[in-house]
Each structure stands twice: as structure tokens, then as C-alpha cells.
Automatic annotation (TrEMBL):
<dbReference type="InterPro" id="IPR023827">
    <property type="entry name" value="Peptidase_S8_Asp-AS"/>
</dbReference>
<keyword id="KW-0378">Hydrolase</keyword>
<dbReference type="InterPro" id="IPR022398">
    <property type="entry name" value="Peptidase_S8_His-AS"/>
</dbReference>
<dbReference type="InterPro" id="IPR000209">
    <property type="entry name" value="Peptidase_S8/S53_dom"/>
</dbReference>
<feature type="domain" description="Peptidase S8/S53">
    <location>
        <begin position="40"/>
        <end position="289"/>
    </location>
</feature>
<feature type="active site" description="Charge relay system">
    <location>
        <position position="250"/>
    </location>
</feature>
<dbReference type="Pfam" id="PF00082">
    <property type="entry name" value="Peptidase_S8"/>
</dbReference>
<dbReference type="InterPro" id="IPR023828">
    <property type="entry name" value="Peptidase_S8_Ser-AS"/>
</dbReference>
<keyword id="KW-0645">Protease</keyword>
<feature type="active site" description="Charge relay system">
    <location>
        <position position="49"/>
    </location>
</feature>
<dbReference type="InterPro" id="IPR051048">
    <property type="entry name" value="Peptidase_S8/S53_subtilisin"/>
</dbReference>
<dbReference type="InterPro" id="IPR036852">
    <property type="entry name" value="Peptidase_S8/S53_dom_sf"/>
</dbReference>
<comment type="similarity">
    <text>Belongs to the peptidase S8 family.</text>
</comment>
<dbReference type="InterPro" id="IPR015500">
    <property type="entry name" value="Peptidase_S8_subtilisin-rel"/>
</dbReference>
<keyword id="KW-0720">Serine protease</keyword>
<feature type="active site" description="Charge relay system">
    <location>
        <position position="86"/>
    </location>
</feature>
<dbReference type="InterPro" id="IPR034202">
    <property type="entry name" value="Subtilisin_Carlsberg-like"/>
</dbReference>
Length: 335
């Protein structure tokens, strides 16, 4: 199988401390859904990346288990700490615990299953990815927990049949798979740039925008983009207990992964049953706002988690029971 790697990203700033709900988390209005979603509690998100800083104060309570699939740390499968920084940053955007210090993730009460599939240099092999997807698909927690979402901010140029088969199997088991679109964009939406697994139809492919709601100059465009999320100068956790601002579709992807953890709880309560993977995807997409770019650039648009509630509020006057007799009576009184 071919090699895979971190999708190139930009390190904007590294910080020793932070105390804020990151702007990206606010932009998709995750806090507006926290009360009704129990902040994602009970959902496990598997992160396939460079590992995670397991001692980071914002993450140590969120990590439920993990495994190392790489050659790092003498191939010790229990050493899945992050020797790069990328995986820790992704983890924080998904599930950093809400507290009076640090940062807060999109789903701050969800749990994380860490699969280290990339080395400290950001390189990996496709078989490591395939094995990690199978691991996440079959994993069961101490209380019978199962993985609900797999988040992958990585990619390669080659369509690998074994990779697609593993993804299809996971989706059939009800797991939502969220992937970065890639950072090889040329600033034109009439050309296609593909990275795998993001370009597979079976996954949720995420492009990046900045905080001005403009398409990021680096984001890949293609006919499989599903939606976009904040991906420029994103603040999140970093190695050695620090924080960093990074840019890339890698940073947009975990916003969507965390959002699905929130939606799982909201929709289970609303429908009084657990929705299928396809139904969760539909619930995600109905909470998007078009930004005016082509579909190959932004897919269905920017995620806005409380959009449905806001629309319901606007439509309330039009959904009340209509009583023609009452209108007729008022008309006679006016005469």
C-alpha cells in the first residue's frame, strides 16, 4: 500500500496559556447546543492522527483509550502520545474539557479514542490507517461504549481499495467518518484537487474558511466536498501542555467531528431512537448555511449548529393552527 501523511498545515502561533472558548467553536455555535446535547457526553470520537498529549490538562480526562500503530516508541502499542503536535490540536477542537482555564472543545464531555497512525515527522503507511479504522470500528469500551465518529485530518494522493473497504465497513456499522479535504487548493473552484480518504463519497469531506467567512486560499475544491468549517488560525491544545494556532483543513475537520457528537445526543432525544449514519448526515447538512461559493468549493455551506432552532422560532407564527372562522368574525367586527 502507498504512504500517507499529514496534510500540510501552517503553525501560526504557540502559546503557554489560554482561557477562552475558541472562535471556531463559537462560529459554528456549538455553545448554543450544549444544554440540549449534554455537551456530547456518552459519545466516543476516534482520532487517527499523530497521537495525543495524554497529560494535557484540557484532554487527560477525555481520553478513554488508545493505540500506537506506527514505528515510533519502538512500536510499543501502548505509547500513543503525540510527538508532533497535530493530533493534540485536533483533539482539543473536538473535546477539550470546559473549565476556568485552557480552551473548550466543540463537544467538551465526549470521549476520545486515540489511534496514533502517523509518526512524529507526520508520515505513515496506508496499512496503519486501515488497521486503525478496523480497530476503531470493533472497539468496545468498559461500559460497552462504541465509536460514533472517526476523525481523520490526513491524506494521500492514491485511491487505495483496502482503505475504501475499511471505511465502507465502518459506515455500515453506523460510524460517521469525517475527513479533511486537503490543502493543495489553487484558489480556483473550477479545478479539482483530491486527497484520500477525503475524496471518497462515503466520508464527510470538510473544507476550510476563515473568520470572515471567506474560503481559505489553501482548501481543496472538488465534487465531493460536503461542507466547510473554520480552518484558519484555529486555537486549540498543543504538546507539553501548551496551546497553538494552526491553519488547514485539518483544523476544520474536528469542528465537524465534535458537532456530530452533539447531534447524536440531540437527535436521539428528539426522535426517541438512535439515528442511522445517513440520518445523522442529513441532520448535519440541514444545519448548514450557503456562503455564496460554488458547491465544489463549499459543498452545502458553513455549519451552524443552532440554525434549525432559529428557523423554527422564525416560523412559529406560520405554524400555529389556522382558524378561518376566527378571521371571519374579526372581519365582521371591523365592519
Amino acid at each position: 500500500m502507498s504512504d500517507v501523511h499529514l496534510i500540510p498545515y501552517q503553525t501560526v502561533q504557540i502559546l503557554d496559556t489560554s482561557s477562552v472558548i475558541p472562535e471556531g467553536v463559537q462560529m459554528i455555535d456549538a455553545p448554543g447546543l450544549w444544554d440540549s446535547s449534554q455537551k456530547g457526553a456518552g459519545n466516543v470520537v476516534a482520532i487517527l492522527d499523530t497521537g495525543c498529549d495524554v497529560t494535557h490538562p484540557d484532554l487527560k480526562d477525555r481520553i478513554i483509550e488508545g493505540r500506537n500503530f506506527t514505528t515510533d516508541f519502538n512500536q510499543d502499542i501502548y505509547q500513543y502520545t503525540d510527538n508532533n503536535g497535530h493530533g493534540t490540536h485536533v483533539a482539543g477542537t473536538i473535546a477539550a474539557t470546559q473549565s476556568n482555564s485552557g480552551v473548550t472543545g466543540v463537544a467538551p464531555e465526549s470521549d476520545l479514542l486515540i489511534a496514533k497512525v502517523l509518526t512524529g515527522s507526520g508520515q505513515g503507511k496506508m496499512e496503519w490507517i486501515v488497521d486503525a479504522i478496523e480497530y476503531a470500528t470493533n472497539w468496545r469500551g468498559p461500559q460497552g461504549e462504541r465509536v460514533e465518529v472517526i476523525s481523520m485530518s490526513l491524506g494521500g494522493p492514491t485511491d487505495v481499495p483496502e482503505l475504501k473497504e475499511a471505511i465502507i465497513h465502518a459506515v455500515q456499522k453506523g460510524i460517521s467518518i469525517v475527513c479533511a479535504a486537503g490543502n493543495s487548493g489553487d484558489g480556483r473552484d473550477d479545478t479539482n484537487e483530491y486527497a484520500y480518504p477525503g475524496a471518497y463519497n462515503e466520508v464527510i469531506q470538510v473544507g476550510a474558511i476563515n473568520f470572515k467567512r471567506e474560503l481559505a486560499s489553501f482548501t481543496n475544491t472538488n465534487d465531493e466536498i460536503d461542507l466547510v468549517a473554520p480552518g484558519v488560525e484555529i486555537l486549540s491544545t498543543y504538546t507539553e501542555g501548551r496551546y497553538a494556532k494552526l491553519s488547514g483543513t485539518s483544523m476544520a475537520t474536528p469542528h465537524i467531528s465534535g458537532a456530530i457528537a452533539l447531534l447524536k445526543n440531540v437527535t436521539t432525544e428528539q426522535f426517541e431512537r438512535k439515528l442511522t449514519e445517513c440520518e445523522i448526515y442529513a441532520q448535519l447538512i440541514r444545519r448548514t448555511v450557503p456562503l455564496g461559493n460554488s458547491k465544489k468549493a463549499e459543498g452545502n455551506g458553513l455549519l451552524h449548529l443552532t440554525l434549525v432552532q432559529k428557523l423554527e422560532g422564525l416560523l412559529t407564527p406560520f405554524t400555529k393552527t389556522w382558524n378561518p372562522a376566527m378571521k371571519e368574525e374579526k372581519t365582521h367586527q371591523n365592519k
